[in-house]
Specification:
Elements: E1 6-10, H1 18-27, H2 30-35, H3 44-57, E2 64-71, E3 74-86, E4 89-98, H4 107-122, E5 127-133, H5 137-145, E6 149-153, E7 156-161
Parallel strand pairs: 4-5
Antiparallel strand pairs: 1-2, 2-3, 3-4, 5-7, 6-7
């Protein structure tokens, strides 16, 4: 598997149903399902609404950009960058969810690097927050590898990158 063929493609209403299959795959995986905001009853109608919402939210004053994570043009997960303003600082929450067969292969690190670079260089984000469940050891390890600082830990861990 060549990791240099990993890309982020913004989610739009022009997307086909390949993404729906990936979302259903994620929902069938207990570990990913806990981290995913996708409703359990996702169907074609709700999927089209997800595409529309993703496109609309990218145009908000404080946008949320959602991306398909692709490997050789095949969707293997999704990610997002959600902007916020706190104490006059432009920040963003970022996250990723990969289908099970693509986890723990270094892909998450590459995707997070792309998201961080995009947030800092193109969106001019000053701080990045990554939130994950306390028991998500893979994501916690990934955050540490990215050099993120743990700032909060209850049921959910929050990491910050400045």
């Amino acid at each position: 598997m060549q990791k240099n063929n990993i890309n982020l493609r913004q989610i739009t209403t022009k997307d086909d149903l390949q993404g729906l299959k990936v979302l259903k795959n994620i929902l069938n995986d207990k570990e990913a399902k806990e981290e995913s905001p996708v409703p359990e009853e996702i169907n074609e109608y709700l999927y089209l609404g997800f595409l529309k919402l993703s496109e609309d939210e990218s145009k908000d004053k404080l946008p949320c950009f959602r991306y398909w994570i692709t490997l050789d043009n095949e969707i293997i997960g999704y990610s997002d960058i959600k902007e916020y303003i706190k104490n006059d600082i432009l920040g963003a929450n970022i996250g990723i969810i990969l289908t099970k067969e693509y986890r723990n292969k270094g892909i998450g690190y590459d995707v997070m690097q792309k998201l961080i670079n995009n947030a800092k260089n193109n969106l001019h984000i000053e701080e990045i927050i990554i939130s994950t469940k306390k028991n998500n050891k893979s994501m916690n390890k990934l955050c540490e590898k990215l050099g993120a600082e743990l700032i909060n830990m209850d049921d959910e861990c929050q990491y910050i990158i400045k």
